[in-house]
Amino acid sequence: MTSPIMSKKVLAACAVAVVAIVFTGVLLSTSTEDSVDDTRSEDGNFVSITVSSSRPGCEEADICYLLPQITISVGESVTWINDDSAFHTVTSGHYDEHDGIFDSGQMDPAQKFSHMFEEPGQFQYYCRLHPWMDGEVIVR
After folding, report:
1. Which end of the chain has the lower number of beta carbons within 10 A, N or C?
2. Residues 120-136: tens digit of each pLDDT
3. Which is the CATH superfamily of the domain at 4-139?
4. Over the stretch 28-69, which tens digit does the pLDDT of each residue have?
5. Where are the domains of the chain?
6. Which residues lie below 8 Å from residue 67, measured CB to CB, with a gap of 6+?
């Protein structure tokens, strides 16, 4: 039986590994605007949809997304990459209230989605397929 402390250490080590892999990919990537494709934001603002986030529990440690909250400037883009083995969406609003600002549609594993934010504000988003997953983009 694995102790809760050991489980947290393993989870933290996995999260660090995912961030390192995603960061390496950002250094090798090019830019996009508002699309699902194989490129990343030239602004360097990226969010990983983490491994195993399709299973309940990631929300307890706030690691369904790395970064669960990101702050950017007006006119910059955020790129989400699906680092999980399951399908996901990046949908603006809350699980019971899609606000229509952006929606990636279904993202396959390793697929990316970018959205440019042209107005200041706080923009919540979630995964339509996994209601426990939510995050926020703060635009200043």
Report:
1. N
2. 999 999 999 999 999 99
3. Cupredoxins -  blue copper proteins (2.60.40.420)
4. 333 334 445 444 456 689 999 999 999 999 999 999 999 999
5. 4-139
6. 47, 135
